[in-house]
Specification:
Mean pLDDT: 91
Helix content: 55-70%
Distance between the termini: 65 Å
Number of strands: 6
Shape: elongated
Low-confidence stretches: none
Strand content: 5-15%
Number of helices: 14
Structural class: alpha+beta
Order of helices and strands: HHEEEEHHEEHHHHHHHHHH
Largest sheet: 4 strands, antiparallel
Strand order of the largest sheet: 3-2-1-4
Radius of gyration: 23 Å
Length: 365
């Protein structure tokens, strides 16, 4: 069915392009071809911006607040009542994102309805702009830029409504499908927004409501949604270093389970989180096949990759290099990071890991 939809989408776009150039032929030349390429590049950037602006506007209409919006490496973040710009290429598989959060606690059904409207905002904005642009191109202003701009908006809007996964990123269509079909208390998407709300109120995760942490742990260990493993970071922040065995027990069922080396962000998070918990239990170096398990972690995220290399150095007895790598991970987090946002909790955990390693080095000496 998805292949049929993609074929129809391509056929419609092709038909409109052919019809336009039949009705309004262009004098083709090298200069014209270069212009068409430039039109496409500019149109693509504007199309992504329109898509994310659509999410943001629909989200605001649902009582959400803007956390950050990005197009390519350009990130606009709202923090402390100010708007801040960052230049950070994302390695998480998306070319644009509008991240929104709720300002107040809602009933899950109400949250689901509002999130569905927010997610629909991006594709609907693209499709609305595409219809307007194509109509204008065929009626008022016969210019190839307007046609290309309209067709790209139509392509992004319509294709994004199809349920699919690109790397570890869900299309809007898949997010909408999950929100509509998954039981309220088993929805990782809803739980993610509950976590965002809790974090916006208190960055000290150890002060969070234990009931929320219990819900996160239950969803992770149930195995019903692989994307729930992205919350293992939160579990580590809550339990480590004092309750390392508890953190390890939560990650045990999902970590080091992939077959071979694959680009899977959720598997990477599960593996590095479990390795971190094992480190604080003192069992990392003795874990069977640990070096091969760590080597299987992908390179989608530079922070995760650096932490993995730090663990490998630690296992090999090079504590000094392991500490240097953990310090590098803190630098990579910077002021803002696509996966960790402001990264306060991750930085705190990394500093705790450094302290443990340096204390161990002092004890050995």
């Amino acid at each position: 069915m998805k292949q049929v939809g993609s074929a129809l989408l391509g056929a419609v776009i092709g038909l409109l392009a052919v019809l336009y150039f039949i009705l309004y032929p262009e004098a083709w030349s090298i200069g014209m071809i270069v212009s068409m390429v430039l039109y496409a590049l500019v149109s693509f950037a504007l199309t992504v911006l329109i898509h994310e602006a659509g999410h943001a506007l629909f989200g605001l209409s649902q009582g959400m607040k803007l956390l950050n919006i990005s197009v390519g490496p350009i990130v606009l973040e709202q923090h402390g009542g100010k708007f801040l710009f960052h230049w950070i290429p994302s390695s998480l598989g998306y070319v644009g994102r509008a991240m929104m959060g709720f300002s107040e606690k809602l009933e899950l059904e109400d949250m689901r309805r509002r999130l569905i409207r927010y997610i629909y905002g991006g594709p609907l904005m693209n499709i609305g702009i595409s219809i307007l642009s194509i109509v204008l191109a065929f009626s008022v202003w016969h210019h190839p830029f307007l046609l290309i701009f309209g067709l790209l908006n139509f392509l992004l809007g319509a294709s994004n409504l199809q349920p699919a996964t690109v790397k570890s990123v869900f299309t809007d269509g898949l997010v909408i499908k999950k929100l509509k079909t998954e039981p309220l208390h088993e929805s990782a998407l809803l739980l993610g927004h509950q976590i965002l709300l809790e974090e916006s109120r208190n960055t000290d995760v150890k002060q969070w409501n234990p009931a929320l942490i219990d819900t996160v742990e239950q969803l992770i260990t149930s195995g019903k949604d692989p994307s729930a493993t992205s919350f293992l970071h939160t579990i580590n922040y809550f339990h480590l270093p004092e309750h390392a065995e508890k953190a390890a027990s939560v990650g045990l069922q999902t970590a080091f389970t992939r077959a071979g080396k694959t680009d899977d962000l959720y598997a990477d998070i599960a593996d590095i989180s479990y390795a971190t918990a094992l480190f604080f239990t003192g069992r990392l170096a003795s874990y069977p096949g640990i070096e091969n398990a760590l080597e299987s972690i992908g390179k989608l995220d530079a922070v995760t990759d650096t932490k993995r290399n730090a663990f490998l150095s630690y296992i090999q007895g090079d504590i000094q290099n392991a500490v240097l790598l953990l310090k590098k991970a803190i630098e990579l987090l910077g002021v803002w990071h696509p996966l960790y946002l402001r990264g306060e909790m991750e930085k705190k955990l990394l500093h705790q890991m450094i302290d443990w390693m340096e204390n161990e080095k002092t004890t050995i000496s």
